[in-house]
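Before relying on records like the one below, remember that each one covers exactly one chain. Contacts with other chains, cofactors or solvent are not represented anywhere in the record.
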Amino acid sequence: MLLEERDYRVRAGFLDEFLENYRTLGLPIQRAHLGEPVAFFTSEIGELNHFISMWRWKDLAERTTRRAHMLADPGWAPYLESIKGLIDTQNIRILIPTSYSPMS
């Protein structure tokens, strides 16, 4: 099992717009192709304007296949257009649980 952490730093003043576009345009497509997410977060203390999503995968092959289907969905391009210019940086980490993790 793998956990994917996707951390987007959104331009100051645009977090609400990003969240609404993601909720209405991006998330339905992701749920259709990727399944249910583990969690979503925003930052409140420390470095602000972050949106973090977490996804669980059996392995990298499952992630690759599901994401390829999502990227090919004709509804994905309009979502990407709706968030164009809203993201400063994006960091993606694949986290592998230790043998003693409750998630392993």
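The mean pLDDT is 96.
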